[in-house]
Amino acid sequence: MIKKIADSTTEVTYLVLPNDTNPLGFLRGGVLMEWMDIASEITAQKHAHCVALTVAIDTVKFKSTVKSGDTVYIKSQLTRAFNTSMEIYVQVWASSLPQMEIRKTNEAFFTFVAIRDDGTPMKIPSVDPANEEEQLLYDAALERRNKKIEQASHSYETNDV
Ligand SMILES: CC(C)(COP(=O)(O)OP(=O)(O)OC[C@H]1O[C@@H](n2cnc3c(N)ncnc32)[C@H](O)[C@@H]1OP(=O)(O)O)[C@@H](O)C(=O)NCCC(=O)NCCS
What we know:
Distance between the termini: 35 Å
Order of helices and strands: EEHEEEEEH
Oligomer: single chain
CATH architecture: Roll
Number of domains: 1
Shape: globular
CATH superfamily: Hotdog Thioesterase
Bound molecules: coenzyme A
Largest sheet: 5 strands, antiparallel
């Protein structure tokens, strides 16, 4: 079965509140990572139609600060589905009062594995890139996946995580 990337693409919006920030009023990285993880989990579950677990997060970039009162927009989209795993590209933008101009602040690649009720990995549908941007992300996903698996095998061999 082959599905469209657009069918599982997810967009969520948050308002940054004081509880999400450090003492200087800037959004904490861990809070943003949780929001990105939730958005990508929704994408994974829309695609796989089952529970999906995060197995890897890579190349997280924090380009600019986000402050209390800002609005945060998160978009998560599949780049490629493999056998039981799928890579999801998460992008984050923010806007501040009073201009509300939107600036890109973060991006990352998350890998999820679809699992059955007994916790074992489950086969998922493939995806079909619909345009040049989706095709570029799809093509590059294979190299990223190979690197992640290579790195994970080294760290688990030595018991480092
Ligand atoms: C998800 C989990 C059940 C997979 O079990 P597993 O024994 O690693 O299964 P496999 O080795 O068959 O790997 C499953 C898939 O994940 C991929 N994978 C595993 N580790 C990966 C990594 N670090 N990066 C990218 N892909 C990875 C494998 O390549 C495989 O992909 P494929 O089926 O598409 O070819 C297991 O790793 C797990 O429970 N991890 C903890 C997940 C979790 O708790 N997440 C929350 C974060 S705290």
